Structures are given as structure tokens and as C-alpha cells.
């Protein structure tokens, strides 16, 4: 490095911008820019057949949580909307908690294998992570649907007389999301446990800690960053999930992603859809910012 | 010592849970693949081995159209995003941090942070007005959208590769009177190639697998393979979908294996 002739700073900076410009332009046109247009649309009035009428209105934002009765004009909570928002948060949280409960033992198991075995198992976890989410959700669908593998099997061995209704329920969505997002929990947890010095655990046992105390007081504080990273990585896509609730939840068990979709289809209320998208975006971005702050703070301390 | 550490690290029930997780992770995919070879029309009742669903799927004109369309989009998106990502990586690595650096990182990684449905809806709104204004309904929108969200996937492995390369070879080339272009063409680019190929493959897979953004951006009649499959789930699904899924899974596993081999051997 030392032998490189130093370039004038201004020239370096100009070439940075020149080289990154094409990527930034494409991202502005086809990713970031449209988000701002969406924000504008959330302040317009819905057109009769979809799209918008260019007239300023805060109705969409108002309608997210409140509704005005068409006859007497009284204000009430928009129960349908709140139910969907609450279901999204609840499902994303249950998914995250369950992913921790099974992801932690799995990560721990991988981290305590021999190095070669570890690599192989990580590869096994990574493959589903990169394979098509749609296909993985299909796979779950084919197992739990009424004429699916599970019900056919149970009918065949005679445990049940009629198929059990599992699909098209909140439970099915929870099951599917845990299945598709679990690798996102295992990988950062593994990274954290891998750095954990097992001698600390030994010391804890020597000092008469029982397993639970050792886990809670010694292991958890050290792997906490991995735990938080995994939780964020699972919670965020789960909250904005679209494909999994569509395939496993059906029309009655919508999450916010499907509800947004509905506003651009049958609902014909683009501004409401835009407002809901902005809310989801703000929520996710603030979580990410909090997470980055947390990471910076813990690296400053350590 | 090693034996003892192993004992200490053992926690009750953990092994059982972990093994269950591995089984549960692969069982659904395994069954999906298995039933693609089913002789009967069911995705749940096994009636013997047969390869009939593969030619049947290919014989379906909609499947063929969607496959070709998906491949065109994924190749274009992979090519465009990798080119742009390579330039961006060259502009942001191995040099003094410039003031705008953080902003550039945030911009490049933005598609990873925003929920897909939000990007999809935003693109629907934006492209709807362009479609009305210009009358153009072609594949360009899908290619532009895919190229944009593939940029971070292509960027990460290329940047990782660049960071692992020191400047000595380039300096040597420059000392031997190579022009900056010659240095780039004959020294930097060949060294960077594994990263570029890895990035291109990730971009290709990401584009090929995308369903949400395609669903909202596509014009009428522009089904991609994933949107076609999503449409099939509403009807009585046939084993055809399993056959297509199996082929897609196979392609992904092959590309991932190559990706791992390429990125593992840094030196």
C-alpha cells in the first residue's frame, strides 16, 4: 500500500462518484425514487377505477386507523385495519420467538461440531436460505393442505376420518414463516456462539452454576448481539411478508403486505395502500436504525 | 481436553431439537421433489415413479413462455447489475473514504432494507404513470426493477474480493508503464473475475426467484415463472408445478455450490 503514489484527494473523490454514478442512477430511478412518489400518492385522493385524483387529501392517513360512518358521520376505530396490523405484528413476533427457541439449539449444535462437520451443516442451512421462497412455501402448502401429504397419511393410517383443517389459518402462516425465515436466525446466532469461549461455561459449572444459570448468566450476555441480529433479520421480513400469508393464510388471514396489495387491486384505494406502505417502511427503517445504534454502542464498549 | 470441552458444551435437549430442525428443513423440499416424479396426478399420494411431468410441463405453452421470459429478465438483470456493481465496488473500495461514502453504501444496500412489498407498490405507482405517458409496455420495466434490486447482491461478493486484493500488482504494472486502462484490463479484472462471477450468479438467482416485485411491475400477459406458479396455486395444483420447482431448485443448488467454491478459495 505504501508504494502507491498518492493521488490528489479531489481526483479520487471525483472518480468515486463517476464509478458509482450509474448504479446510483439506476437505484434512484427503480428503487429509491419511487418511494418518494409513493409518499406523495398517500396524500392524494383515490380515483374511481384505481390510481389517484391529483387533489391534496389526508384522508388516506386518517383512514388507516379511523373510519367515519357514512350515515351519521361518527368516528370509530377502523377495526378491520387494526385487526390486520395487529395480526401482522403478532405473527411476526411469534415467528421470531419460536425461531429463537429452535434456532438457538440448532446454532449451538452446529458450533459444537468438528470444523469439517460445521462447514457442511452451515452449507445445509444456507441452501434453503438461498432457494426460492415461493417454492419453500409451496412445499409447506403441499404438506398441510386438506388433500396434502399429512392429511392423506393420517387418513391412510386411520387416525382421523376427515382431513384436519390446518391451512388457511394464522397457525399455518406462523408455521410457514418460521420455516422460511429460520435460516436467518441460525446464521447470525451461529456466528455469535462460534466466538463464545467454552472455557467460560466450564468455569461457571466449576463455580456451582446449574445449567440454566450458566445459560442465562454466562452464555446469553455474550451471544446477545447474534440473538438481536437474528431477531431483526427474522422479524423484518416476517412483518412485511406477502407470499407466505397469501399461500398459507388465504383471503381471511391477511397480513399487512396482502392488505396493501388489496388496496391496489379490488380495494381501488391507492392512497390508503401508499400510506400503509409508508407506515411499514417507517417501522422497518426505525428498527434498523435502532439496531445499527445498538451495534455501534456495543462495539464502542467492547 | 477436547473431550471435556465437548461435554461441557452439551446442553440437554439441544441435539434433539437441532436434528429435528435439519429434518424439518429438508423434509418439505424433499417431498416436493419426490412427488415431481409421481406417476399419478396427486402431490400427496404416491403412485409409482415416472418422468412424465417434466415433458408435460415443457409442453405447456404458458410454462415455456414464462421460462423464456424469466431467463431473459434474469440474464439481463444479472449482466446490468453486475456491471454497475463492479464499477461501484471499484469506486468505493481500496481508496480513502470520501465524505459521501456512507450515503453510497446506504443507497446501494437500500433494496435489502426496504420490505419487498413496499418497493413493489412504489414501482407499480411510478411505472403506471410512465406506462400511460409513453405507451411502452415491454419487458424494460421488469429488467430495470430487477437490475436495481440485484445490485446489492452483486456488489457484496465483488467488494469482498476487491478488499482481499492488495495494490502491489497494480503498482507493479503501473511501474512498468502500463496505462491505467491496461492495468485494469490485464491485472485488476482477471484478479477480480471470481468475485464478478460469484456476484453475477447471486444476481441471476435473486432475479429468477423474485415474485413480489415481478407481480406488481409486469404488464398484462408478462408472466414470469414464479408469478405463473403463484397463479397456479389458486387452482388445483398439478404435479407440473413440482417439476418446475425441482428444476429451479436444482439450478439454484448448482449455482450455489459454484458460488461457494469461487468465494472460498480467496488465495
TrEMBL record, chain A:
GO CC, any one term: plasma membrane
Domain called ABC transmembrane type-1: residue spans: 85-291
One Pfam match: BPD_transp_1
Membrane-traversing stretches: 20-44, 91-111, 117-136, 174-193, 226-244, 272-292
Cellular compartments annotated: Cell membrane
Entry's Gene Ontology BP terms: transmembrane transport
Source taxon at top rank: Bacteria
Topology term for the membrane: Multi-pass membrane protein
Keywords attached to this entry: Cell membrane, Membrane, Transmembrane, Transmembrane helix, Transport
PROSITE patterns: ABC_TM1
Family label: Belongs to the binding-protein-dependent transport system permease family. CysTW subfamily.
Name the record gives this protein: Spermidine/putrescine transport system permease protein
UniProtKB/TrEMBL annotation, chain B:
Record membrane topology: Multi-pass membrane protein
Keywords tagged on the record: Cell inner membrane, Cell membrane, Membrane, Transmembrane, Transmembrane helix, Transport
Keyword field contains Transcription regulation: no
Pfam hit, one: BPD_transp_1
Domain ABC transmembrane type-1: 67-262
Main location class: membrane
GO-annotated biological processes: transmembrane transport
Locations listed in the record: Cell inner membrane; Cell membrane
CDD domains found in the cross-reference section: TM_PBP2
Highest rank taxon of the organism: Bacteria
Coiled coil: none
Claim: Cell inner membrane is one of the keywords in the record: yes
Assigned GO CC terms: plasma membrane
Transmembrane feature ranges: 12-37, 68-91, 112-133, 139-158, 191-217, 237-262
Function: Required for the activity of the bacterial periplasmic transport system of putrescine and spermidine.
The family this protein is said to belong to: Belongs to the binding-protein-dependent transport system permease family. CysTW subfamily.
Name this protein carries in UniProt: Spermidine/putrescine transport system permease protein PotC
Species, as recorded: Sedimentitalea nanhaiensis
